[in-house]
Every structure is written in C-alpha cells, then in structure tokens.
Design brief:
The protein is α+β, with helices and mostly antiparallel strands. The chain is built from 5 helices and 19 strands.
Length: 260
C-alpha cells in the first residue's frame, strides 16, 4: 500500500512541505542529522550504503514510497545515502506530522514493522554467517513450508507469458509486486509481467473458503481488479470458478482448476 499525502488546506501551505531535487541530487548523506522523513510524490530515489569508499545500491524507491523514517523514530543520524534517481518531488514530514500520520493511518506503522522485521532477519543471517551457528532446521527456510501450503491443481496462468502461479490451499494467496522498502514479495509476484507498474504492491488476495476461491481487492489499490471484465469493489470477496479471467491493473490472468 502506498502512502497518500493530501494537503487538507490551501495549496500555499502544502507547498511549504514540498522539496524538489534534480536527478543525481543528494537528498541526505550517511551520518547526517535527520529531523524529517520523506514521501515520494513523483520520480524515484536511490537508497545507497557506503562500503569501503564505494556506494552500494540497496533499493530504488518510487512514487508513494517513504524513507528516512528511522532518524525520527530513533533520533539517530542517517544510516544510508538518499540520492535522486530521476527528478523527484518529495513531501517533507517532521516529527509532529509523522505522529499524526501514525495515529490516523495504521498501515504506515505496519509497513515500518515489516521493514524492521526484514532488517532483523538480514542481521540474524549475517551473524549466523560469521559465527557458523545455523538456525534450527524448521526455521532455516520457509520455502518448503510454502510448498506445503499450495495445491498443485489451483492456478493463475498469465495470458501473455503462460507463467503459472500456484495458489495456497489452506491460507490466503497475496497478489502484487515486490516491495523494495520492506523486501516483501507477494505469493503471486507480477513484477516481471508489469512493465508499466500498474499493479499495486499489495493489490489483492485470493482466499480459499470451504470449497471455493474468492478474490478480494486490497484497500489502496490504484488501478483496479477485474473478474471477467467487471471491476470488483474494494474489500468485497468475489467467488471464482474455473476459466474466469482476472485482471490486476493491466496484467491479465486466467484462474484454472485442474481435476486430479
């Protein structure tokens, strides 16, 4: 889900929060004192880390993504470099505005928790690599667990590439694109099929309830979810049957049930 910032007042007062940075321009440097976070209104931003005198790209963020929040959460210097990848327009958010956003939009707090969880996993993996102490077998990878959650006869098939995505039989199946902020990848990752970025990061989910599957569009989805050409309302489960045509943004797929 993207962060949407509205002015809520006059255009002049909102303009005071806008920062415009040309491509290649430095937004903040590693070690800087941070008093603001940023939401990207247009363009894209590279997040980099200096290692042995060289800048290593960590992520490229786009419209709706936020960054720089750790400095106002923990009151610590910036831990990375932020540089404009293209001409970029940013909304600057100070501590008081940030506190109000958290109170009024719980999704922002959820995304930050996911981001912190991702960092914790990466740190744990690094410590294991350095100490040579592995995690217990049942926690070492979630790949086999995901295989167990999927049923081979329930699939989404991409119309353009014929790529197949198997659906979770026991739990929900998430549909969207990988989130570069948190590193979270949905079960059905349409990133490679969506050159125009029409699919939201958390676009929809497919639920298995009893004997049928239902698709539910997530709150905040920008370009719609369609079943057999009809746009479905956000948050309302719509039942699927074999052969139904689905469109997430501009990506077309077919729901197939193959009897064993």
């Amino acid at each position: 889900m993207k962060v949407v910032v509205k002015s809520g007042g006059s255009s002049t007062s909102f303009e005071d929060y806008i920062a415009r940075v040309p491509a290649g321009g430095l937004i903040f440097d590693e070690g800087d004192v941070g008093t603001e976070m940023f939401v990207i209104q247009s363009g894209s931003v590279d997040i980099l880390k200096r290692l042995k005198g060289e800048e290593k790209l960590l992520a490229t963020l786009e419209k709706g993504d936020f960054f720089g929040e750790m400095s106002i959460l923990e009151d610590v210097p910036r831990t990375a470099v932020a540089r404009a990848h293209t001409d970029v327009e940013l909304v600057r958010i100070n501590q008081s505005t940030f506190d109000e956003m958290l109170r009024n939009n719980g999704e922002i707090a959820v995304r930050m928790l996911r981001k912190l969880s991702r960092r914790l996993r990466e740190t744990t993996a690094l410590l294991e690599q350095q100490t040579g102490v592995p995690r217990p077998l049942e926690e070492s990878s979630d790949f086999f667990a995901k295989v167990g959650e999927r049923h081979e006869i329930y699939r989404l098939i991409a119309d353009a590439s014929q790529e197949e995505f198997y659906l979770n039989r026991e739990e929900e199946t998430t549909v969207g694109r990988i989130d570069p902020v948190t590193g979270i990848r949905p079960d059905v990752d349409l990133t490679a099929l969506d050159a125009q970025r029409s699919v939201s990061r958390r676009h929809a989910k497919i639920l298995h309830t009893g004997t049928e599957f239902k698709v539910v569009e997530e709150i905040g989805t920008m370009n719609g979810t369609f079943v057999n050409g009809r746009r479905i309302p956000t948050g309302t489960p719509v039942a699927l049957k074999d052969g139904d045509r689905l469109r997430f943004g501009l990506v077309d797929l077919t729901f197939r049930v193959t009897q064993g």
